[in-house]
Amino acid sequence: MSEFIQITEDNFDQQVLGYKQPVLLEFGAPWCSPCHRLEPLLIQLASEEWHGRVRLAKANVDDCPNLVVRHSIMSVPALFLYIDGQPVQQMTGFQPRNKIVEKFGPFLSSQPTL
Asked: Any idea what the CATH number is for the domain that residue 54 is in?
């Protein structure tokens, strides 16, 4: 089962930008109800149809103000897909599974399985 790695301002460059596999980064917060609803969907996708193709990561917006500014986060949850250290797609707000697959699937289906 896929789990989220915790992203901080100190490990962002290494764990997201420098990671060899695509990274789906969720910006959220403990007080964010839609974030809590989104996370099981992402875990399910990463464990099933995107298995071996993506790493899940999350950053707490309350603890990462510089990353929030850098990504122009205005609301949570906010998802950013990084491939080869570059953001290639993003989505804001809770979305149903089919919308998440529609948005990020084309980028991940072409990735090799690790």
From this structure: 3.40.30.10
